[in-house]
Amino acid sequence: MSLMPAPPLIITPGEPAGIGTEISLKAWHAGMRGICLMGDPDHIAQTARSLGIRANFYEISKPSLYDYGTTALAIIPVAWKKMPIAGHPDLMNAPVIIDAIRQAVLWSQSGTAAGIVTNPIQKSCLYEAGFSFPGHTEYISSLAKTMPGGPLMMLACDKLRVVPATVHIPLNKVPNSITVALIIEKCTLMHYCLQASFGIKYPRIAICGLNPHAGEDGRMGEEDDTVIAPAIHQLVSSGINATGPHSADTLFYTEARETYDAVLGMYHDQVLIPLKTIDFFGGVNITLGLDFVRTSPDHGTGLDIAGRGVARADSLIAAINMAKRLIDSTSA
User: Fold this and answer.
1) What's 308's DSSP letter?
2) What is the pLDDT of residues 239-265, one digit of tens each?
3) What is the rounded CA–CA span in Å between residue 55 and residue 82?
4) What is the pLDDT of residues 185-236, one digit of tens each?
5) Going by C-beta distance under 8 Å and a sequence separation of 6 or more, which residues neighbour residue 199?
6) Sign (positive or negative) of CA dihedral 3, 108, 320, 32
7) Are 279 and 245 in contact (CB under 8 A)?
8) How many CA atoms does the CB half-sphere of 190 hold within 13 Å?
9) Which residues, other chains included, contact 159 with Cβ-Cβ below 8 Å and sequence gap of 6+?
10) N or C: which end of the chain has fewer CB within 10 A?
């Protein structure tokens, strides 16, 4: 009996004036298969010509029509209100960008697509058009069924996995946003996802302190002793291998990274700076705790280099490979 091939992954267009189309074409040209790219066929063909890539593609209306017998790139047409100009986002295209994400989520939830890999969006442009979510992850999560503690934004590369407990909020709001319950929820979901999605039987989770030197016994802040440490104690009591609070400035060097499988940080930059320093081009953004697989490259829209042909596809390729790995883990 022959097995049916897995449904394809959807690659969303993201901001069409950015580097999304360019890196998607480069990823396909590098051998990525089992993907459907959403976008305007004329814009994609124009971008391919500018890159010197022979644009061998075909159009389909939905991922279930993906042709497994060809190496040509499958395109799901998206009709931009204004033809994109590299480096110059247009507010008229904002609703189309948002709707493309929504449609990709629906296809993934129905099983028509295996999951989605999202190209970066220009949030400032979407905000001007009335977009009310702090970011991509929050919008996608609003469309999904999330597990307790989710969504969980994990950034991963070959040498490090990190999760920020708080994400797109001002730094001065972080201390009051961190609670015992929040840390327990995030770590419990991390523990489950490290087992279910990464095959780690006994996950080791290192938890960052909030303040310098993890508060240094309260002399540099009380949150480490009054919030983070009690949460760790409860996690350990429940059978989760959590340690900390650790001083973040000594948690990311090579030998230290051998002592854990993932890190929970207290705020966005605390854990994203180390990961991007270690592997800027190979980092992947994973949204865990959803009812479908979603990954994305760990960089922005690249408006400053859009249209120049110099954008690297490494992170998008890593995001596609990571999505396939997560899909294989959940279907095993």
Assistant:
1) T
2) 999 999 999 999 999 999 999 999 999
3) 22
4) 999 999 999 999 999 999 999 999 999 998 788 888 899 999 999 999 999 9
5) 329
6) positive
7) no
8) 30
9) 257, 278, 279
10) N
